[in-house]
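Lest this sound abstract, we think one record worth quoting, the chain in one-letter code, the fold tokenised, each line plainly labelled:

>
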Amino acid sequence: MTLALYKRVVLTRDLPKEGLRAGDVAVIVEHYPARADVPEGYELEVFAATGQTIAVVSVPASAIREATEHEVLSVRGLARA
């Protein structure tokens, strides 16, 4: 199932190069349909608590999941590799 643009999602794996961790929240800004040699993917924008963009990353669909109404956001420091 394709997720909608601008939907909030949760990372399911760490992205150490960008300083991101599984559980971080991002917003979908682009969808990349699967091709014969490339799996379905998404481009995500990740924001600081104050609203500034801190990362834009491309990930496979398997690296994200939908956020649910029963989850609470929290704050942590960004640790860049």
In short: The CA atoms of residues 2 and 31 lie 8 Å apart. DSSP finds no helices and five strands in the chain. The first strand starts at residue 8 and ends at 11. The chain has a mean pLDDT of 94.
